[in-house]
Here is the input.
Amino acid sequence: MAVTPALLYRGAAATSSTTLKTTTTTTIVTDIIITNTNAASQTATISFDGIVVVPAVTVLANSVVNFQFKSVLAASKVIAGFASSTDVKFHISGVEN
Here is the structure.
């Protein structure tokens, strides 16, 4: 099977837990970039299939935080997330099989 680089989610965070992506095939999450364009620090949380992998991490004002993973998710698993402000943006990438 071919492994294809994939943009899993790119966009603004909601302020309550929201599904960002439901996998359709085996997916490996490799990078999560979180940006905060607000003048105040904000927090962000991301979970893979109900397991929190980024737990209310503080993102300083006008800053970027980058996480590198090698987390395998089977098909039909949910990547969810939220933040304390919609000024927080998520960019989640990986590979799909």
In short: The two ends are 6 Å apart (CA to CA). The beta strands are 4-12, 18-22, 27-36, 42-48, 51-59, 63-73, 78-83, 88-96.
